Task: inverse folding
């Protein structure tokens, strides 16, 4: 049993997977934050452009 526990404690096969899962979650969270921040500004800019174009006479 001691040998099994020693081998289990030294085995690092799953550690890399956990690192990649955490890294991927951070990237997804950062992308969501960026999209949320840009969405409000994009809607405001679209409204400004629409108002500008509506004032033009052809």
Result:
């Amino acid at each position: 049993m001691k040998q099994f526990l020693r081998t289990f404690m030294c085995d690092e096969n799953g550690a890399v997977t956990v690192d990649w899962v955490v890294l991927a979650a951070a990237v997804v969270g950062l992308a969501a934050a960026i999209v949320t921040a840009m969405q409000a500004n994009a809607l405001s800019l679209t409204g400004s452009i629409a108002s500008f174009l509506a004032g033009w006479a052809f």
Remarks:
- Helices lie at 2-10, 13-54.
- The CA atoms of residues 9 and 49 lie 61 Å apart.
- The radius of gyration is 26 Å.
